[in-house]
Inverse folding.
């Protein structure tokens, strides 16, 4: 049984290490020494969680009550805890200061079980019970252990790396060679439960990828579309007969039905079932298959009657974001009606359909899902004629849609989970409007505003993701396009992510240092018109290349549906600049 102290010690060490290789090496070494459930538990804990991403893993202790648990554990008053907190700024550090325990007794399994227990207590009096359970384990914890237990409880472990490093470490620890990392990353697109993945790898080594398959209740990563620069390119990339589907600007959704249990997951794999009771009801009422997994898009939508004709109204993505809430769901269900458009089927009655071709999947989809009420199938055409394709695109735009997604019907047109694939190509209206491009960038800093913007930010320092290095590299400063309401929302979002120094996964040049540093968490969509070489920025710098910068950037919207690792990559930017 490995002690929790070893894990806490490693957390502390990892916080100081900046080298990618070194972090992976340390992680691998640690996993090699684990057995049984420890593997699974540790995989979650390294990501600061106590379960897979698609499960709600918040422990549900109100922040201010954690002070009470700490006071109870160390026998001091809440007032004193608050004072120490005001000085240290981190309750984990307060626990570290207060713990007098020298001998470590807790095991990883014990701590993990206790944290799960805290999460699971619910109902009347549950807050008291949660505090009691936390207080009790803190009493048994050494200073270091206490510090990290508190950080996990708050969901703020922040070791400065994400799941990709863990996957690389699994390759070394469980297959004995880093060369299997690619396969393991692919498996993770299908088995998105990092704990289950780790455990299976620990049991089966390099042969483990053969054990992963889609299953209801566990979302797979979404297949994404590549963008093309011209209509001609569309024709070149997918020759001959192809399908063109309407592209809706809403929220990606994966619906899983297993008997009576129906769940909806977002593109970030969050469980969003509670946000869309109307979609869940529609699926329950109209789909008779016992187990089924569907892929589609939820859009803010209404059908209106005008002069005796039925017209479809598609509303902007921003409208839909009103549905992103835990409370008053019913009220907003009325205020912001939605429709769901399914375009793919990934699983049916015990059988994975991921390896079937697009045409096979579409036929199965049509057999099993009939449009009714707010549930639809995406409208599409199958054609090899360019004019027909262009007409279909123009009609879509006329209807207020974003554009189309053209899909390959070739014999290898499988569902490529987790991939931005050349089997799906998107073509949007804005692409045809000259050189304006949009980018999803991660905010890592802000500069104080002046004049009218005093008290708020003047500009945001934005980065793109360097996928190989897993670093966020600066690309532009965005200072225009914000309404007052945008600025207010952004300020409140950023306030929970400010940090005192540049996070180690962010690369910034001296001349670009912001007034406030922000850890990579918030993604915004930015419109820009030109990519230039710039020695001041770090995006794509290295190997004889200077950094890249975006000129004339303008804020469009906050991308709540994207995490920092879904941001535009420096590779995509370089390709765009070089016109690939
Ligand atoms: N018929 C469709 N087929 C596939 N995806 C569709 C379709 N209609 C809408 N979509 C949405 O479009 C997205 C495809 O664009 P992309 O893969 O680039 O994601 P994105 O960058 O979020 O797109 P965007 O920037 O256009 O919002 C899908 O993730 C899906 O949510």
């Amino acid at each position: 049984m490995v002690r929790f102290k070893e894990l806490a010690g490693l957390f502390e060490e990892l916080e100081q290490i900046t080298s990618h290789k070194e972090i992976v090496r340390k992680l691998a070494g640690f996993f090699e020494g684990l057995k049984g459930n420890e593997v699974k538990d540790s995989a979650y804990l390294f990501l600061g969680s106590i379960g897979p991403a698609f499960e709600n893993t918040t422990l549900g202790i109100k922040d201010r009550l954690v002070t009470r648990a700490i006071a109870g554990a160390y026998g001091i008053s809440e007032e004193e805890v608050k004072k120490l907190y005001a000085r240290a700024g981190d309750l984990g550090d307060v626990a570290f200061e207060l713990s007098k325990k020298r001998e470590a007794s807790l095991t990883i399994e014990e701590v993990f079980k206790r944290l799960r227990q805290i999460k699971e207590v619910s109902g009347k009096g549950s807050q008291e019970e949660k505090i009691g359970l936390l207080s009790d384990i803190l009493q048994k914890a050494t200073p270091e252990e206490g510090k990290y237990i508190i950080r996990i409880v708050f969901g703020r472990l922040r070791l400065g790396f994400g799941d990709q490093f863990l996957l690389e470490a699994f390759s070394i620890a469980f297959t004995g060679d880093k060369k299997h990392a690619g396969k393991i990353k692919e498996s993770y697109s299908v088995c998105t439960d990092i704990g289950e993945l780790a455990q299976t790898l620990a049991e089966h080594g390099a042969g483990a990828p053969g054990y992963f398959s889609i299953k209801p209740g566990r979302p797979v990563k979404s297949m994404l579309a590549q963008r093309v620069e011209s209509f001609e390119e569309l024709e070149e990339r997918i020759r001959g007969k192809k399908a063109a589907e309407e592209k809706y600007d809403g929220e990606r959704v994966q619906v899983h039905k297993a008997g009576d249990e129906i769940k909806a997951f977002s593109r970030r794999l969050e469980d969003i079932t509670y946000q869309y009771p109307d979609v869940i009801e529609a699926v329950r009422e109209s789909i008779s298959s016992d187990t089924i997994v569907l892929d589609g898009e939820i859009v803010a939508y209404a059908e209106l009657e005008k002069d005796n004709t039925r017209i479809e109204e598609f509303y902007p993505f921003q409208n839909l974001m009103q549905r992103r809430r835990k409370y008053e769901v019913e009220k907003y269900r009325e205020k912001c009606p939605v429709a769901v458009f399914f375009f793919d089927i990934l699983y049916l009655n015990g059988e994975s359909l991921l390896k079937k071709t697009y045409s096979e999947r579409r036929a199965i989809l049509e057999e099993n899902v009939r449009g009714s009420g707010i549930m639809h199938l995406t409208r599409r055409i199958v054609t090899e004629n360019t004019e027909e394709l262009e007409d279909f695109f123009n009609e879509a735009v006329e209807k207020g849609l974003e554009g189309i997604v053209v899909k390959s019907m070739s014999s290898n047109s499988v569902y490529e989970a987790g991939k931005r694939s050349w089997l799906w190509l998107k073509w949007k209206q804005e692409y045809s409007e000259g050189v304006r491009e949009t980018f999803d960038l991660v905010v890592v800093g802000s500069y104080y505003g002046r004049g009218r913007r005093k008290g708020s930010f003047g500009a945001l320092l934005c980065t793109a993701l360097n996928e190989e290095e897993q670093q966020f590299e600066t690309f532009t400063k965005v200072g225009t396009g914000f309404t007052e309401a945008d600025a207010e929302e952004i300020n409140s979002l950023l306030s929970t992510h400010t940090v005192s120094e540049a996070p180690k996964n962010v690369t910034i040049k001296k001349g670009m240092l912001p007034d406030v540093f922000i850890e990579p968490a918030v993604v915004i969509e930015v419109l820009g018109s030109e990519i230039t070489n710039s020695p001041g920025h770090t995006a794509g710098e290295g190997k004889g290349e200077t950094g890249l910068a975006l000129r004339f950037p303008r804020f469009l919207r906050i991308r709540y549906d994207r995490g920092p690792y879904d941001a535009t990559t420096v590779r995509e930017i370089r390709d765009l600049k070089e016109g690939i």
